[in-house]
Amino acid sequence: MGRLRKKGQAGAAKNYITRSQAVRKLQITLPDFRRLCIWKGIFPREPNNRKKANKSSTASTTFYYAKDIQYLLHEPLLQKFRDQKVLEKKISRALGRGDVGDASRLERNAARPEKTGRPPYTLDHLIRERYPTFVDALRDLDDALSMLFLFANLPSTSSVPAKMIAKCERLCLEFQHYLIVSKSLRKSFLSIKGIYYQATIQGEDILWLVPYKFNQRVVGDIDFRIMGTFVQFYMTLLKFVNFRLYNSVGLVYPPKFDQTRDESAAELAAFTLEGTHTVMTDTPKQLTSGESDQAPDPATQEAVNKLIKKMKETDVDGEDKAGTADDADKEDEPTDAIDKFEPSAPGGDILPQPTDTGSDTGTLFANCTFFLNRETPRQPLEFILRAFGCKRIGWDAVLGDGAYTTNEQDPSITHQIVDRPIIQAAMEEDGNAEDNQTSQKLASNQRIPGRIYVQPQWVWDSANDEELKRPDLYAPGAQLPPHLSPFVQNVHGGYDPTIPLEDQEPEGEALEDSEEEEDEEEEGEDDNSLAVKKVETPVNDMDVAETDEEEVDDDDDEEPGPFGGFSEGEDDMEDDDEEKEEDEEDAELAYQRDLIAELTGQPASQKASENPRSKAKAEARKKLSAQAKDEAEEMERARGMLSKKKRKLFDQMMYTNNKKSAEDEKLRAKRRKLEKQKARKPVA
Amino acid sequence: MAGTRSSLKRKAPPAEAVVETAFHSDDEEFGDGLLEGVLEGDSDDSSDDDGDDADIDEVNADLENEEEDALESDDIPTDEEDADGKNAAEADDGPKYRIETDANGGTRYVYEDIVPDYDSDDTDAQEPVNTIGNIPLSFYDSYPHIGYSIDGKKVMRPARGEALDALLDSIEVPKGWTGLTDPATGKPLNLSQDELELLRRVQMNEVPEEGYDPYADTIEWFTSFEEPMPLSAAPEPKRRFLPSKHEAKKVMKLVKAIREGRILPYKPPEEREKDEEEEEQLFDLWADEQQNPPNIDRISAPKMAAPGYDQSYNPPPEYLPTEDEKKAWNETEPEERAKEYLPEKYDALRRVPGYDQFVKERFERCLDLYLAPRVRKNRLNIDPSSLLPKLPRPEELKPFPTVTSIEFRGHEGRVRSLAIDPTGMFLATGGDDGTVKLWELKSGKQMDSIKLSSDEPVDAVRWRPGKDASILSAAVSEDIYFLVPSYIDPELHQASRDVLDAGFGYATHSQQLMTASGARKDPPAKWTRPGTRLEDQGVLLKATVRSPIKVIHWHRRGDFFCTVSPSGQKSSVAIHTLSKHLTQIPFRKLPGLAQTAQFHPSRPLFFVATQRTIRCYDLQKQELVKALQPGARWISTFDIHPGGDNLVVGSYDRRLCWHDLELSNRPYKTMRFHPEAIRAVKFHRSFPLFADSSDDGSLQIFHGKVTNDLMADPTIVPLKTLKGHKVVNKLGVMDIDWHPTSPWVVSAGADGTCRLWT
What's an example Gene Ontology biological process for this entry (chain B) (predicted)? Predict the structure, then answer.
């Protein structure tokens, strides 16, 4: 006999540790523990058996892996936390003694620890630890970006220092600059929550949400200390990510930051990008060209754009070549492009190769010059336009510094983004009177010829579809087409608003629909044929009753009782009987209808012509319902043969599937209704 | 008379003194009176004898007088002082004893009580201390005294003033009066001048001791003055007079650092702030990145779901909620909502408001990231219909018997057994009336009826397999009869006769079995001709065993058959060889009563069912292969699937168990569809059907499909319950048999009929 094994000495009881145990083991306070967990990415675990992990106690607690906590013990930050605690004690003691000078000295020393020989704590090592490769870091960038963009838009409070906000904003703008230069922004979506952006960097899709530029409402109990801890980590993360990304495109990080321009709300334009090569120095000038600059012609702009892409290429004839077609360029590049493999001899399998479609998304707006009206959101528009290749964006002076032009009448402007209703003539003067604060010299309703006026949604829809949309659909004051999320992947069978209804509705729904239509048509046709309708409605009722009866029959058959045999033949016979009955009923109805028609004095032929159509439909419906019934019966039978476990699983799956399909059905029904209304409106 | 003197010194307020003395004197008088009584008694006795008493009396009188003087004059008449007075008087006046005459007339010295005083040895005792202990004084309310002193003397109650005196007291309070009563003496507690002074000092936070100077000059025991004589005579070292080189070095270092600008003596504050900002170092963190091995413990946080169509600021109209949906959304708790937002449509981007839950949602996401336990969940992304087993369609299950097409009537009493001949044309039945009847199956015509016994029932009828001969075996009690139907064509008839007769020659040539002792052993069965009456009817052979036979089962080749006679102890199972007229008893011992036995349809295996188990023996190796345990209490019957790998067991406790021989000893499926005992189970030889019959008068038809695929389980589908037989004496359907080629089943009922179900 082996040694007796004590309970709670091995297994789950040893592998898991509760939070209070962990805090006690690390000898730190709970807030410090929380910070450590956030930074180290340690999260609670759900043990397979809570009771075993909790040593038979039933109290609800959070569990951590004991190994995780053990690993926290070696964390250098832990010592820093303790030092910090000691310092705080010293300061509070000095203050208690009334020794303000001493306290301030201690605080000052802590603020510049390198002078006092104590290095400050940074989170660099944590980032390397949590993201061993750069791709790992990119994968986790979603939350970081959403958080930093939110903080960049927050007002500064005691819990959120202004310095932190400024830093967040700077990091975000730097990241946006990278996206513009590398042209890696793919999609964007205007939602009710904010603006979603999706970028693809090194094959990783990064999706983040930027709030609209409003003062954020802080509701409920939101602990900004927790968020601050996250932001601290994310700032360090994005700093290193930015550094690497800038290096990867041959730019110097950090880019030069112009404080004065930033103060005049230049945002993106406050940064001056510098290439590691001398050639690169002229590109930022173009990027941030002020209003005094002449409009550079698109061809050279494109050339510069190309230059950014191929950093190393410094030969002089690059500019000449830039004007030529893309294909020529591709041939010149020996490394970047994928070679096309053509089968030299027949008989081989063809392997799929990715086509290089990424390049044209970056030049979507390359040939356009935009002007943003003062009511449009400047920051998102500027970012998305630049990310999709636009180089010249002007805006009204009230929107801030950094515009290509603030003159609305600049002849180089090709597109103007407007987000205001068409103002009536009477309102015009008022509009003019208000305008004196802006540089706008035009009357609000006046249009400059040769320019396309569009609403902001045009930019988003064009960017998502990678083509310039028809501007007339997005004209100011027009009813905009729906703005669809580019992130939805349509699954087969699910509802897709882009496809016409007829193509996606199942047969049964279509039939029902047409029947309803018919009813409605009849309603429209003759209001005085109420009697006929009254007769018709019972038909439906009877149908329902029939199905009920059948179901009851089925139940009888499948009763678990002593033994449910198969009386298929009988059933069939019953069915046949019923069908016969129905036919008889139909005939009767037809006869009745004719009689009524005679009474009312209407020609009976019309009904006769209508009759076959409805009859055919009814038959189709009957067939469909019978088929559905058969299928359901079959499924029920097969389900009965499953083991209990499998049956449960099956039921769960069916539940979720049904829920999904019910939602789709609802959407289809709504759309059908709307379409009908729309169709009827012109008539009415 | 120190006491009197001191009291005289005081300027006593007369009223107080008067009160006090009044009380005192009363008590004193009272006490004295008592004492006097005693003394007087004494003196009365003694006065006659002695005249010396006069002295003492005088002394006493003196004392009393003196006392009264003192009392009159003294303002604080304490006991102490009284005692003092007495002592003093005694000390002054003479001997401390007086001489009395005792009862015998002798002299007796009566000493005065020793009053402890400063004069006496006992210096601590101050006054008569009340020794009553910790009891309330109210106990003594009705007595003149308030307790007893250490000597056992009564401590008298101190004098109390009358109300008027008390009033006077309250008007003029004597010095040192506290208004407290000393609990020990019961007298008012007064404080002296010194005591009051002490209290005052304590109250004023002064040093209690008078004349103590807390700030007295220190006495310098050790002085800083240089003594004229030094301890060491060494001369002062030179270094004391030279500037320090070390210090100069340090200063020079500082100077150099300042000159070089390494140390700034003063830094403007804004510069310091700048310092803070530029502290970040930037480097490529992932310069030497290397992939960590994937760790199953690290579960990365799930990404936020991408927005759908309904989150758009301008969604397609069908995504907008209806009024009802809006209402329902508003009424539900925020935690219970399926979506945290309501889709809304804005006709222009400028109309879109800020999302008020933005910060909250981000915060909740943060909480999720660090507080939520992460669990890896496998999401099954499979079509649910792939889980369903492939059931045969009801149409595919056909054909199976559904209705009675022919009813065979003719037996009196129960029909015990029946069998369809291998050609499928004839039916043989055996019943309680001891007859075997032969029927044409398709027409229901009775072809023949042979009475084998007048009193014993026919327990089993079985056809010999194979179409080369047509032989029916029937078991009546211990006898097995073999008969050849008369109606068949002569060639077949002859062949059948030959088969039956072949054994006679063999039997005569074979040696007789001998026991060990040499005596002729009784053979397990006797093979004989049944007699002319029966031989005329086609019964050609009879084998008699030791005990009544209930079951006959033929081997597929038609040469062997086994019989089971449950009551036949050791020889319950017998294997007979028709061609040799030989009978063997394969089992000397069986665990339990043998119920039925069967040959395996293809392999040389032999199955014997006892009450609880079914044992499978290999006939060649002569060993036990397998023991199945269907879990039934009492097995009634079983049948082996023609494929040979499956087996169906019926039992008297209403179970029908399907065994897969490859799988396990336990049943693959157990069916309990019958309310009464199951009598017979049969597989169809070619269709995937099997049927059982029960005492409830019904047959149940199942679809039982076995595939060659080892992985696929057999499918069993209940098909039909056939009802028609009447239940007689709690017995329903006794036996069933399938048609060899068509999906027809025949059943033998206890009501004396047989039915063909098609």
Answer: maturation of LSU-rRNA from tricistronic rRNA transcript (SSU-rRNA, 5.8S rRNA, LSU-rRNA)
* Smallest Cα distance from A400 to chain B, Å: 18
Lowest mean pLDDT among A505-514, B36-45, B386-395, B589-598: B36-45
Question: Which residues on chain B are in Cβ contact (under 8 Å) with A222?
Answer: 359-360, 363
Report the pLDDT averaged over residues B507-533: 67
Give me chain A's average pLDDT, please. 75
Cα B262 versus chain centre, distance: 74
User: Is residue B268 predicted with pLDDT exceeding 80?
Assistant: no
Element spanning A83, H or E:
helix A76-96
Q: Is the dihedral of CA A263, A266, A268, A274 positive or negative?
A: negative
Rounded to an integer, the average pLDDT of A283-292 is 39
Dist CA B155 CA B146 (whole Å): 6
pLDDT of B124 > 70? The answer is no
Smallest CA-to-CA distance from B613 within B562, B647, B642, B585 is with B647
Of A46, A375, A562, the CB nearest to B350: A375
| Residue-wise DSSP of B117-147 | -SSSS--S--S----S-SS-GGGGTTSSEEE
Quote the CA–CA distance of B71 and B66 in Å, as a whole number: 8
- Are the beta carbons of A355 and A339 closer than 8 angstroms? no
Please indicate whether, in this complex, the C-beta atoms of B350 and A143 are within 8 angstroms of each other: no
Spatial CA neighbour of A188 closest among A172, A210, A159: A210
> Does A255 lie at the interface with B, CB-CB under 8 angstroms?
no
Cβ contact (<8 Å) for B291 and A133?
yes
A508 touches chain B (CB under 8 A): no
Do residues B325 and A504 make contact, with C-beta atoms less than 8 angstroms apart?
A: no
Residues of B in contact with A253 (CB under 8 A): 282
- Distance, CA of A60 to CA of A51 (rounded, Å): 10
Instruction: Evaluate whether B374 touches A47 at the Cβ level (below 8 Å).
Output: no
**Distance from B651 to chain A by nearest Cα, in Å?**
17
Q: Of the candidates A580, A553, A577, which has an alpha carbon nearest to the alpha carbon of residue A567?
A: A553
* Mutation site, A454, A461, A557, A566, interface B, largest B CB count within 10 A: A566
Task: Report the residue of chain A nearest B277, measured CA to CA.
Answer: A163
Confidence of residue B272 (pLDDT cuts 50, 70, 90): low
Asked if B360 lies within 8 A of A219 by C-beta distance, the reply is: yes
Interval A610-628 mean pLDDT: 81
Complex ipTM above 0.85?
no
Residue B389 clears pLDDT 60, i.e. is over it: yes
- CB contact under 8 Å between B720 and A565, yes or no, is yes
Given a cut of 70, whether residue A308 has pLDDT beyond it is no
Domains of chain B are 2-173 (no CATH), 175-210 (no CATH), 407-510+520-550 (2.130.10.10), 590-758 (2.130.10.10)
- Check A649 against B349: CB less than 8 A apart: no
Nearest beta carbon to residue A192 from set B300, B313, B350: B313
Percentage, residues of chain B above pLDDT 90: 17
**One-letter amino acid for residue A528 of the chain:** N
Q: Give the chain A residue nearest B345 (alpha carbons).
A: A192
**What percentage of chain A exceeds 90 in pLDDT?**
25
**Contact between chains at A657 and B375 (C-beta distance less than 8 A):** no
Across the interface, of A247, A487, A497, the residue whose CB is closest to B306 is A487
**B154 SS3 class:** strand
How does pLDDT run across A427-439, given as a tens digit for each residue?
444 444 444 444 4
pLDDT tens-digit series, residues A231-267: 999 999 999 999 999 999 999 988 988 888 888 888 8
Give helix A224-248 / helix A141-152 axis angle, nearest 10°: 110
Specify the pLDDT at position B520.
57
